[in-house]
Specification:
With about 220 residues, the chain is of the alpha+beta class. The protein folds into 2 domains: about 90 residues, Alpha-Beta Plaits (2-Layer Sandwich), CATH 3.30.70; about 110 residues, Alpha-Beta Plaits (2-Layer Sandwich), CATH 3.30.70. The protein is about 35% helix and about 35% strand. The protein is built from 7 helices and 8 strands. It has an 8-stranded antiparallel beta barrel with strand order 1-3-2-8-5-7-6-4. Strand 2 and strand 3 form a beta hairpin. Helix 1 packs antiparallel against helix 4 and helix 5 runs antiparallel to helix 7. The radius of gyration is 18 Å and the shape is globular.
Amino acid sequence: ATGPRQNNGIFYEIRTYDIKPAKMKEFLEMVSKYFHLRTAHSELVGFWYSELGAMNKVLHIWKYDNFAQRTAVRHALANDKDWQGKFISAAVPLMEKQHNEVAYLVPWCQLGKPPKEGGVYEWVTFQMKPGGPALWGEAFRAAINAHINTGYTRLIGVFHTEYGLLNTVHVLWWNESPDHRAAGRHSAHEDARVVAAVRDSVRFLECQQNMLLIPLPCSPLK
C-alpha cells in the first residue's frame, strides 16, 4: 500500500474519458438518456465534464466496498445487453482515450457534499515526490486545512492513488461559481496562514494541474 487510508476496504475508481471534439454534445446526450442503466449496478459518486483546464473530457467516480464487488459489477455490466447495446456500442466510437485509477480517501477526510446545488467543482491533481504520506502527508494536510479555514471553498474529498500513477493526490473542491472561486483564491494568497502552509508543502510537490468541472444531471454531486 502507498500509505495510510480509511480503516475499511472502500475505494473509489476514477475514470477519465477524452471525447472526440465534434462528438462531445452527442456523448453527453447519450449519458443523459442511458446512464441509469449503469448506475443500476453500482454507486456513482459524481459525473462531470471539463469546462476549463482541459477540453472535451469527462470524469466520473465510482464507489466500491471492495475489489470483489467491483469484479462482480464489471462481470454484470459485460452481460447487461441493454447497457452494452444501447450505450457502450454507440459511446465507444465517440471516445479518443480512456483512463482509470483506483484511489482511497485519505484517513483525515470524509467524502463531503456541497451546501446546495448549482455550483462548480474544481479537480486539482498533485503529483507528489516518491515516499508517500509518511514523507509529505502532514505538510499536505496542513495546506488543505489552511485553504478550508479561509472559508471561500468547500472540500468534497481528497483521494490518494493506489493504482495508476502513484504518489498522486486528487482534491475535489466545490465553489458557488468560478468568480467566487477567483475572489477567494486572491484573498487566500494574501493570507499568511495559507502562504506558510503552501510554502511548506510545495517542497514535496513535483507538479500540479486543475480542471473546472460542471456536473451532469445524472451526477449525485451537483
